[in-house]
Design brief:
By secondary structure, the chain is of the alpha/beta class. It contains nine helices and eight strands. Among the domains are: 67 residues; 93 residues, no CATH class. The protein has a three-stranded antiparallel β-sheet, with no helix packed on it. Strands 6-7-8 form a three-stranded parallel β-sheet. A two-stranded antiparallel sheet has the order 4-5. The radius of gyration is 21 Å and the shape is globular. Bound molecules: zinc ion (ZN). Zinc ion binds next to loops.
Length: 244
C-alpha cells in the first residue's frame, strides 16, 4: 500500500506543500510553520483493526526496522523512506510501571508512568530523532550535499542527535551552553560518537575559542552567537571564519 507524506503550510489561506526532502524551515510563501501531512485516503484503505494487528505483529520483533516502537508504524511516519536508510536503535517500547505510592499521594489508584527517557541516549527525544536522522540519511543517499546536522540544545535533543548521527556515520554539531548538560547524557554521547570522528575546521576554531575538550569532537563548547556570526555569508571573508 504505497502512501505519501509531505510538508504543508499550517496557514489555511496558503496551504503550500513541499516534499519532505526539501531543506525548508518555514513556508516560503507566507513564512508560517509547516507540518507533516499524510495521505489519509490511502491509509484508510486498511481498517483500524488491521492496523492494530499489524502494529502488534511487528512490536519488538527482529524484522528490521519494524521492531522499533517508531518504525513499527512506518506507514504513519515516513512511508516513502527506504528501509536501508532508516537509522534505528530499536527505540520506543519503553515500559509502563505502576507508581503505586505516588498514586496514593495524589489520589489516583491506578497510576502508570511511561518512562521515555529510559533509552540509549537517556533522552525521550530518541523517538523523534530516529525519524530526523533517517530522513537526512535518505537525502544524502539521493545526493543532497549535507555535511552535518546541527542543533542548539541543553540536553535531550543534543544527546539524541549526537547518538543517532553517530549510529549513521553523519557528523553532528551540538552547541551547548557550558555546564548545562547532565553528566549521564554527556557520557552516553561521548561513548557513542563515531569512532575516529574529528571536528572540522569550524569546530576546531570553536574549540580554540573556548575551554575545548578535543576528546569529544561531537560536542562544541563555544559561543553560539559567534558560531552563527561565522556562518553568515557576509562574515566569511573574516580571517577567523575563512573556512566556515
Ligand atoms: Zn504558507
Amino acid at each position: 500500500m504505497p502512501s505519501r507524506a509531505w510538508f504543508q503550510c499550517i496557514n489555511p489561506q496558503c496551504g503550500a506543500t513541499y516534499p519532505l526532502n526539501t531543506i525548508v524551515y518555514q513556508c516560503r510563501q507566507c513564512q508560517s510553520l509547516l507540518e507533516v501531512q499524510h495521505d489519509l485516503e490511502t491509509l484508510k484503505q486498511l481498517d483500524a483493526k488491521s492496523w492494530k494487528g499489524l502494529f502488534e505483529q511487528r512490536y519488538k520483533s527482529n524484522q528490521w526496522p519494524y521492531g522499533s516502537g517508531v518504525w513499527g508504524k512506518k506507514e504513519w511516519i515516513l512511508p516513502e523512506i527506504h528501509n536501508d536508510n532508516i537509522v534505528s536503535l530499536y527505540e520506543g517500547g519503553t515500559n509502563l510501571f505502576w507508581a503505586e505510592r505516588f498514586g496514593k499521594v495524589i489520589g489516583v489508584n491506578e497510576l502508570w508512568v511511561k518512562l521515555c527517557g529510559n533509552t540509549h541516549s537517556g533522552s525521550f527525544k530518541d523517538l523523534g530523532m530516529t525519524v530526523l536522522v533517517s530522513q537526512v540519511k535518505q537525502m544524502i543517499s539521493e545526493g543532497a550535499p549535507i555535511k552535518a546536522v546541527a542543533c542548539a540544545s541543553t540536553g535531550d535533543t543534543s544527546a539524541a542527535l549526537a547518538t543517532y548521527c553517530a549510529a549513521a556515520g553523519i557528523q553532528s554539531v551540538v552547541l551547548l551552553p557550558r555546564g548545562k548538560i547532565s553528566t549521564a547524557q554527556l557520557v552516553a554521547t561521548a561513548l557513542e560518537r563515531r569512532p575516529g570522528a574529528q571536528p572540522g575546521h569550524r569546530l576546531r576554531r570553536l574549540h580554540e575559542a573556548g575551554p575545548a575538550d578535543h576528546r569529544r569532537p561531537d560536542f562544541v563548547f563555544g559561543e553560539l552567537d559567534e558560531f552563527i556570526a561565522c556562518g553568515r555569508p557576509e562574515n566569511r571573508r573574516n580571517r577567523n571564519c575563512s573556512a566556515v
